[in-house]
């Protein structure tokens, strides 16, 4: 179906941060399939684990115990705020389940009228009907009938608006610690702390969408750790499977205990193959020193991106995000998709984001030398854009 505006590029093979087309053109992949190939392409441990598991057993359904899922869940619980995990196959599905979990919690506590979630302008939570309604973007909702009820949108970062939106029907607050699709916009750490406090004050659940920000992307395992807070429930996907489709809902016991047999489910979710992949990714990301190395390379990238923006004021006006999720804010004279195309010409893959931002999200295994190479390509791309921006400014 014509759902995508695809670039005329097809990749045959990848290794680490690099991709090759069938014609042998080589690209540095700083998009990571939208922050998903977290440990790079062709990671030997991930490849071997998937191959070995595929040869043993791929799928059995959730009618039976799945030791790979039990192990992966236990490891996620050990490494996070959560007491319990539900596996699914994508970010939208994880959010859909998270929304259901929040509603169920209040219903089981005698408040079925509490089913509203406070969400934020500029959010992106997925493409199912409920997650689209949580996203609230009119353009994405158009033509699909009435949105799912119960999502109240307020400006991102506005605590007064949050407080003003809380009513007798409010069940919780749903937020990305850093809005990814919306333009790599980080929430203030103070704002996240205040959301935690207001949830405690009113008995609301804090539901974090860490589909894009999690699994080490920010330099910590989960981005909310930078704020020193814990959510009640959290969604994850993208990076946790390293490119193999895997999503997860992580939750505190008080939320999870209401999702009894028959309340929620999935056929594929948490099957032996997906969870073997998830375990292999965790082996890499939780290895001693790995996240420290991510943080170190990220700081190198940030320094370079800041210098790049300073060198090209007609093209870029700033840098934002966290860790290896970096947004280059472009000036109104330069369109992000044009800059992205210019970077492709130089051999660098990036991803456009909202608010005219160019999103840079290399795999977590990226080296400083590769970051330097990418910065040079971006510099050349910015120089390509400069004449256009100069012309626009002269008008
Ligand atoms: C990508 C993304 C989703 C949707 O994930 P899919 O796997 O595409 O369904 C949801 N929330 C956030 C924050 C995302 O970045």
From TrEMBL:
<comment type="pathway">
    <text>Amino-acid biosynthesis; L-arginine biosynthesis; N(2)-acetyl-L-ornithine from L-glutamate: step 4/4.</text>
</comment>
<feature type="binding site">
    <location>
        <position position="124"/>
    </location>
    <ligand>
        <name>pyridoxal 5'-phosphate</name>
    </ligand>
</feature>
<keyword id="KW-0963">Cytoplasm</keyword>
<dbReference type="InterPro" id="IPR005814">
    <property type="entry name" value="Aminotrans_3"/>
</dbReference>
<feature type="binding site">
    <location>
        <position position="267"/>
    </location>
    <ligand>
        <name>pyridoxal 5'-phosphate</name>
    </ligand>
</feature>
<feature type="binding site">
    <location>
        <position position="266"/>
    </location>
    <ligand>
        <name>N(2)-acetyl-L-ornithine</name>
    </ligand>
</feature>
<dbReference type="InterPro" id="IPR015422">
    <property type="entry name" value="PyrdxlP-dep_Trfase_small"/>
</dbReference>
<dbReference type="InterPro" id="IPR049704">
    <property type="entry name" value="Aminotrans_3_PPA_site"/>
</dbReference>
<dbReference type="GO" id="GO:0042802">
    <property type="term" value="F:identical protein binding"/>
</dbReference>
<keyword id="KW-0055">Arginine biosynthesis</keyword>
<dbReference type="GO" id="GO:0030170">
    <property type="term" value="F:pyridoxal phosphate binding"/>
</dbReference>
<feature type="binding site">
    <location>
        <begin position="91"/>
        <end position="92"/>
    </location>
    <ligand>
        <name>pyridoxal 5'-phosphate</name>
    </ligand>
</feature>
<dbReference type="GO" id="GO:0003992">
    <property type="term" value="F:N2-acetyl-L-ornithine:2-oxoglutarate 5-aminotransferase activity"/>
</dbReference>
<keyword id="KW-0032">Aminotransferase</keyword>
<keyword id="KW-0808">Transferase</keyword>
<keyword id="KW-0028">Amino-acid biosynthesis</keyword>
<comment type="subunit">
    <text>Homodimer.</text>
</comment>
<feature type="binding site">
    <location>
        <position position="127"/>
    </location>
    <ligand>
        <name>N(2)-acetyl-L-ornithine</name>
    </ligand>
</feature>
<keyword id="KW-0663">Pyridoxal phosphate</keyword>
<dbReference type="InterPro" id="IPR015424">
    <property type="entry name" value="PyrdxlP-dep_Trfase"/>
</dbReference>
<dbReference type="GO" id="GO:0005737">
    <property type="term" value="C:cytoplasm"/>
</dbReference>
<feature type="binding site">
    <location>
        <begin position="209"/>
        <end position="212"/>
    </location>
    <ligand>
        <name>pyridoxal 5'-phosphate</name>
    </ligand>
</feature>
<dbReference type="Pfam" id="PF00202">
    <property type="entry name" value="Aminotran_3"/>
</dbReference>
<dbReference type="GO" id="GO:0006526">
    <property type="term" value="P:L-arginine biosynthetic process"/>
</dbReference>
<comment type="similarity">
    <text>Belongs to the class-III pyridoxal-phosphate-dependent aminotransferase family. ArgD subfamily.</text>
</comment>
<dbReference type="InterPro" id="IPR004636">
    <property type="entry name" value="AcOrn/SuccOrn_fam"/>
</dbReference>
<protein>
    <recommendedName>
        <fullName>Acetylornithine aminotransferase</fullName>
        <ecNumber>2.6.1.11</ecNumber>
    </recommendedName>
</protein>
<feature type="modified residue" description="N6-(pyridoxal phosphate)lysine">
    <location>
        <position position="238"/>
    </location>
</feature>
<dbReference type="InterPro" id="IPR015421">
    <property type="entry name" value="PyrdxlP-dep_Trfase_major"/>
</dbReference>
<dbReference type="InterPro" id="IPR050103">
    <property type="entry name" value="Class-III_PLP-dep_AT"/>
</dbReference>
């Amino acid at each position: 179906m014509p759902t995508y505006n695809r670039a005329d590029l097809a990749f045959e093979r990848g290794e680490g941060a690099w991709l090759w087309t069938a014609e042998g053109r080589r690209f540095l992949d700083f998009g990571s399939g939208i922050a998903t190939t977290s440990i790079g392409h062709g990671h030997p441990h991930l490849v071997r684990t998937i191959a070995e598991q595929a040869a043993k057993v791929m799928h059995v359904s959730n009618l039976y115990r799945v030791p790979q899922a039990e192990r992966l869940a236990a490891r996620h619980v050990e490494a996070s705020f959560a007491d319990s995990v539900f596996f699914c196959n994508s970010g939208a599905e994880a959010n859909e389940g998270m929304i259901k979990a929040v509603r169920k919690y209040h219903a089981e506590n005698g408040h079925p009228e509490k089913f509203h979630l406070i969400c934020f302008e500029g959010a992106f939570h997925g493409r199912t009907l409920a997650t689209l309604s949580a996203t609230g973007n009119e353009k994405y909702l158009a033509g699909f009938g009435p949105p799912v009820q119960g999502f109240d949108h307020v400006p991102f970062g506005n605590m007064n608006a949050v407080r003003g939106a809380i009513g007798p029907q409010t069940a919780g607050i749903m937020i990305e610690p850093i809005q990814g699709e919306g333009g790599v916009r980080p929430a203030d750490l103070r704002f996240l702390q205040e959301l935690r406090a207001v949830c405690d004050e009113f008995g609301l659940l804090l539901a974090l969408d860490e589909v894009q920000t999690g699994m080490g992307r920010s330099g910590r395992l989960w981005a909310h750790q930078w704020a020193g807070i814990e959510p009640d429930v959290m969604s994850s996907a993208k990076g946790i499977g390293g490119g193999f489709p895997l999503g997860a809902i992580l939750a505190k016991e008080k939320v999870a205990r209401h999702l009894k047999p028959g309340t929620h489910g999935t056929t594929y979710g948490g099957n032996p193959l997906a969870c073997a992949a998830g375990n292999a990714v965790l082996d890499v990301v939780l290895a001693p020193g790995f996240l420290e190395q991510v943080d170190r390379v990220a700081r190198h990238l940030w320094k370079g991106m800041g210098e790049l923006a300073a060198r090209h004021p007609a093209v870029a006006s700033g840098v934002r995000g966290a860790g290896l999720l970096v947004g280059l804010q472009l000036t109104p004279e330069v369109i992000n998709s044009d800059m992205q195309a210019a970077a492709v010409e130089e051999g660098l893959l990036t991803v456009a984001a909202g608010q005219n931002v160019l999103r840079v999200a290399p795999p977590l295994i990226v080296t400083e030398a590769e970051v330097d190479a990418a910065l040079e390509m971006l510099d050349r791309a910015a120089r390509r854009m400069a004449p256009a921006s100069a012309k626009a400014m002269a008008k």
